[in-house]
Amino acid sequence: MDIRLLHPDDLELVCRHREEMFRDAGRNDDVLMPMTEHFREWVRPRLLDGSYFGYVMSDGGTPVAGIGLMLIDWPPHPLHPTQDKRGYVLNVFVEPSYRNRGLARELMTLADAEFARRGVGYAVLHATEKGKPLYQGLGWNGTTEMAKTLNAFVTPAIAPSLP
After folding, report:
1. Is the pTM of this model over 0.85?
2. How far, in Å, CA of 137 to CA of 38, rounded?
3. Burial code of 3-31, b = ≥16 C-beta within 10 A, e = fewer?
């Protein structure tokens, strides 16, 4: 198995892996098609400037697994009181015929090492139900994070001016 860093030419691979990851988690094409279109435009400049980075595993030149990584700006927090960044893991994907061989575990080990190399001591990810056992086995824990979908098409009320 060959492992290499992501590069800008991997744009379509990263998009396909993300889409397949969400499809595997039960999402349908009504959501995935527009998501991928917008994700492609979002990730393209980040692949170019290196703010989206990660690894690809290939077997005989064919990509079979990948992981995306980012550093996110975050204020110092009790879990990282002296750092203003968090590592973020996303788009972990292994082709179905290559699963249960330890590839995702190896990618996560590479992620830990890359974050450490960049001086980041705290990282987060959002796990699918299928991914949770892997992450928990690697020492990842649930957090108190909550989420809410907001209706972005409603015009917000104008906040009153403060004196």
Report:
1. yes
2. 33
3. eeebeeebeeebbebbbbbbeeeeeeeee
